[in-house]
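Progress against Task 2.4 (sequence-to-structure conversion) is shown through the following example record, which the project officer requested during the mid-term review.
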Amino acid sequence: MDAYDLTRELVLLVGEFKKEDRGGHGDLVAFLEWLHARKDARTGSNTLSITGHSIEAELAAHLGRLNRYATTYIKMVLEGTPFATAMEFTFSAVLDKNKEVAKTDLIRMMAFDKSTGMGVIKRLLNKGLIEEFPNPEDKRSKLLRLTQNGEKAVALGYQTVPGAANMISKNLEDDEKQKLLHLLKKLDGFHYPIYLNGQERAYL
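Structure tokens generated for the chain above:
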């Protein structure tokens, strides 16, 4: 294909993209994402290697698998630290960054359900890695913060967890990492308000 034919095909593709972009806000990144999705759609059911059902089911399956890979890697590098799970380290790291956080706020920041989040907090309290104290602005609630042992444990985790983080995206090029991060943030921006408002059932 010479330059003329390539340019002509590109112009036609841009025309198709603009027809589907009814809001008229599509930029270069949106066009490239549309082009990539269009290419994948043409490959047919061969791309549905896990579910064989639909692209939506396939995406959900791959995201679930990626989460399990990440959890396994992080758990491995946390061996030798007081943290038994990736969740324990993540909760502690958030406290390290924010210093003092209410229980419910910490759970919401991590997008966990209340019972699971409270279980993580209870384990960290029992290990002496965090402590709770009265909220001076609201006597009905308590705030959480790291203990000295918790600060030392988080500092140790910071030395090991980057290895797991690098492993998760190890085979991606820098531009692919940027694209994936953009898409994940876009998905999170859609789902987080639904989670905060407890409206999951309304969307299912």
